[in-house]
Design goal:
This protein has three helices and eight strands, in the order βββαβαβαβββ. The chain is of the alpha/beta class and about 140 residues long. The chain has a four-stranded parallel β-sheet with strand order 3-4-5-6, covered by helices on one side. It has a two-stranded antiparallel sheet with strand order 1-2. It has a two-stranded antiparallel ribbon with strand order 7-8. One of its GO terms (molecular function) is oxidoreductase activity.
Amino acid sequence: MSSITQVAIPNVVLQSSFSMLVIGFGTAAFETDDGDVHKLALMEAIKLGYRQFDTASIYGSEQALGEAIAEALKLGLINSRDELFITSKLWLSDNHPDLVIPALCKSLHHSSLVLLLLTLTARYPSLVVVNSGKVCSASFFIL
């Protein structure tokens, strides 16, 4: 039987002074809506040493992530929530000044977390339409 070799994952220091690992576990591609399956996958990731997780309200994985973190703490897989770096995203529909804070609160509530270390704003290619109905420019933004 082969053994797993632990390696140090490189990190980068953000402008906020938080240190972020360059490899993380994404939660967008779960092929089921079953939260128990999500939680199991996330628990296995924590057992394997993942410490950075990427989620978003639209992925439907925030609650499972919160449950997995609580379970990992209970089992002693991690000693504190501070060992993890959690990234979430504001979706396109939440990119209005009046909707940002409620959307972040919703994400925190779903995940039972008190802190997200990084929140990204999703923005995809957009078209600008003028009064005539013709497209006058197109733009895209890379996060």
